[in-house]
């Protein structure tokens, strides 16, 4: 009897430790328990009968101000938290830096709405207007590159330069990725775990995995433990549909602002890659070719390529990226 009680206590304690460990790894879907490097403010927006708010950082220059502003647009699986070193470099050279978490991402609201790059661009323009910024250079990474492209197309007079860091959307995914509904994408997103996030990051984003990348996994993976994760998963599915259904690839020729592409040549990102066979996967997402092809479409565009670098140059090769970025500004 005593043995059974002892075993029961051991089991209970082990279970309690496991539950506590899980909770300690849990992050809210609006990242309240993730500290950003700079103060976060909120811009109110009304959309489809809902009051939402867009989180953003507005960071002043740390050296003599040069009167110029850079706006940073994050990728689909990220928020403003991964721009810290870029912000430091830019503010150290006199730039004001504005870093929004797009609606549906990071610390911003996660509403169930029709997600649109046009609408996101309009919200970011409204934010700049509210902050008294008449013109900014816009740096977009990954999905942020699609958004930055749309912003430059809609607001050329407010875009000093368009800076694209391994942007997605350099191909029309509708041509070769099978269509899935938002509900199907939602079912897939619901299966995400911290382990699957790490596996995806290791296989898709970097050429060599380093311990410092674990923080990116901690944030993205921690959200999957939240009781509210189904909402975040649904929004992620909605924004997948936005990317799939709203290509910018046919409009690069219409860009009228100075443009620079920063391309990690080992990037092989395809939105919806898991829906393709291995033989199909090798035919697309080849950034060593896509970068040059895209630069040729944009009037007067320049391209800076990085060898032995994957999808996120500003994280994988921060020094080389910063030198290239500052030189381009």
TrEMBL record:
One of its GO terms (biological process) is acylglycerol catabolic process. GO terms for molecular function: monoacylglycerol lipase activity. Keywords: Signal. Coiled coil: none annotated. Residues 69-316 form the AB hydrolase-1 domain. The keyword Hydrolase does not apply. Residues 1-21 form the signal peptide. One of its GO terms (cellular component) is membrane. This is Pimeloyl-ACP methyl ester carboxylesterase. It comes from Pedobacter nyackensis.
